[in-house]
């Protein structure tokens, strides 16, 4: 006679082992690389108050500073020289207010967007001695918070919009087209005003050097979208949604109260080479870590198919990152007593 009483626990144990084995095999395994940050020694003293963005053109690194009296600082990373500052803060005709969308161009030049003035600017070559700013266009409709050039002469402009996720502008700053829908977790959130959802799901974007691809990322949730420019149109290649922003909403709210301070911040910043996307990760909650939650020591690496392939573990806490055009070196700002410029070589991922 078969002893079923003794056999049932044995079968149960085998089933548990099989389930655990399946769960283990489904866990994500990626390459992990540890790096050591090396300071960029500048001959002259410099002070970075509150760095917001970075961009590298040739050997010139531009840093956007939210607290300095001049909002752009320039460094030569090869010679280790601090070149000076420009873009005086103020309300005058040749002054600036709130800047975003710092981008590099050829011959050590850059572009950026002034949110309050709703104007997009180019600089001349920053190695020419005096930095000059040329307004390219003013935007008269909508509320874009970023403006980034694309390879086809158009500009992608994330912002606060009711019925779409992105606005595409022509070279005169006029609306060429719109695309995308704000995400939602369920049918109740779908009824929330687009103005509110646009703030809850506010994406930052980072482009490849060719400006034919860009990634959209969130600070308030683990959500990534990878886009490709094809035949003058933008196509969503892949979107991954792991979590949604934690904020209060009603069926028909009119005001956005901000994300919960008890939710961890996710992606702080992104920078791209032609082959890979690098995302600086926080994972810290504002209520517990305050301003320290806006820094991180982990950088996740994705390919443009949207696959996570590696993680870089830094020996320092970082606030901003910027990859060189050839994809071999990463520049960053370390959170020390004062922000410090550093660099480190990047591993080859293939």
From TrEMBL:
Pfam families: TolB_like. InterPro entries: Haem_d1_sf. This is 6-bladed beta-propeller. It comes from Bacteroides caecimuris.
